């Protein structure tokens, strides 16, 4: 009994990556894992959902088409308001990013599903992709003027001695915080969910075994689990939004580096 | 939880199982990156090449349709206003015409009445004149009869008295007396 409790209580097992199909290319392990499966599921759902809405494309939209169009308008407005009209050339990228993260987070809310965004490799790769685009596009469009980003005009000379290092550090911190924020939020949220759920289950089991008073605590833990579930739903949406809007803000820097 | 498993060899992390921290377990990093690159790439291509332009087109098409419909509605509204104006104009014209017709009819009737009245007046005047002429004749006749009677009466009265007068003298005397009275 102790053993089963231990297995149930381990909140880390939900993040374990398991191989579904072995795949080795050039000695590198590229196996199709449960993480890849849920990623594939999210991507497929996005393509099917938006693809159907786009291919039907009725003048008077159905409900699902309406929702897809709202998603389109939501991301388009987000890009336009933070990065301006020129930012709209990155609209497909931000759209892909937002809904990739959003679907991954939401799929993660389904019990027993794997949350792809709870892995730092994934969030880190996405953050590096964003910051690479910012740097490459910023240099391509503005040339060396891009580095004005680190030295906002209008400050006295000696201020720059402090200002430039701070700006450089904050720029370097961007991909790190972008990756860590999403990763840590999803990880911590799912650990909490798992903890409260297993806690409630254990307490109910104990109550059934005879210690009735523990059942009351179990009900409290269960209620807390529900509350955290609601909170995590909010966080799942919010983190996708934050990831996308920070991407827009950083892209805005690449488009207009001199603030 | 062994947060240092990132530094530890992959085999160790895998073998440790539950004790390791899966997100920092490096054996699956290449696989994760590989599948992420492929799937994210496919999603980006599908969205940017096919789905988003189409969806944007659908939205734009709807906005165009709505704008067109609004324009059409404005045009029809303008048209109906014009038609109303024209109708008002026609109505005013018809009213004016009706007034003219009524005026003309009234004038005609008045003229007829005047003509009829004049005719009747003339007729009446004629008849009046006739009557007056007849009265005059009758009076003249009566007056001459009266003179005759007075003359013969004078002659007769004077004859009774024994004075003979001629008819002409008697008539003269009567005429003198009646003229004095008159």
TrEMBL record, chain A:
UniProt xrefs under NCBIfam families: ATP_synt_6_or_A, PRK05815.2-4
Protein name in the entry: ATP synthase subunit a
Subcellular location: Cell membrane; Membrane
PROSITE patterns attached to this UniProt entry: ATPASE_A
Keyword Zinc-finger in record: no
Cited CDD domains: ATP-synt_Fo_a_6
Topology class, membrane: Multi-pass membrane protein
Organism encoding this protein: Henriciella marina
InterPro entries assigned to the protein according to its UniProt record, in alphabetical order: ATP_synth_F0_asu, ATP_synth_F0_asu_AS, ATP_synth_F0_asu_bact/mt, F0_ATP_A_sf
Biological role: Key component of the proton channel; it plays a direct role in the translocation of protons across the membrane.
Chain segments annotated as transmembrane: 35-54, 90-114, 120-140, 149-172, 178-196, 203-227, 233-251
Keywords: ATP synthesis, Cell membrane, CF(0), Hydrogen ion transport, Ion transport, Membrane, Transmembrane, Transmembrane helix, Transport
Record's keyword annotation contains Transmembrane helix: yes
Family from the record: Belongs to the ATPase A chain family.
From TrEMBL, chain B:
Transmembrane regions listed in the UniProt entry: 31-52
Xref: InterPro entries: ATP_synth_b/b'su_bac/chlpt (IPR002146), ATP_synthase_B_chain (IPR050059)
Compartments where found: Cell membrane; Endomembrane system
Residues forming coiled coils: 59-148
Keyword Glycoprotein: no
Keyword match S-adenosyl-L-methionine: no
Membrane topology per record: Single-pass membrane protein
Keywords: ATP synthesis, Cell membrane, CF(0), Coiled coil, Hydrogen ion transport, Ion transport, Membrane, Transmembrane, Transmembrane helix, Transport
Main location: membrane
Subunit composition and interactions: F-type ATPases have 2 components, F(1) - the catalytic core - and F(0) - the membrane proton channel. F(1) has five subunits: alpha(3), beta(3), gamma(1), delta(1), epsilon(1). F(0) has three main subunits: a(1), b(2) and c(10-14). The alpha and beta chains form an alternating ring which encloses part of the gamma chain. F(1) is attached to F(0) by a central stalk formed by the gamma and epsilon chains, while a peripheral stalk is formed by the delta and b chains.
Family indicated by similarity: Belongs to the ATPase B chain family.
General function of this protein: Component of the F(0) channel, it forms part of the peripheral stalk, linking F(1) to F(0). The b'-subunit is a diverged and duplicated form of b found in plants and photosynthetic bacteria. F(1)F(0) ATP synthase produces ATP from ADP in the presence of a proton or sodium gradient. F-type ATPases consist of two structural domains, F(1) containing the extramembraneous catalytic core and F(0) containing the membrane proton channel, linked together by a central stalk and a peripheral stalk. During catalysis, ATP synthesis in the catalytic domain of F(1) is coupled via a rotary mechanism of the central stalk subunits to proton translocation.
Protein name stated in the entry: ATP synthase subunit b
Record organism: Henriciella marina
Source lineage: Bacteria, Pseudomonadati, Pseudomonadota, Alphaproteobacteria, Hyphomonadales
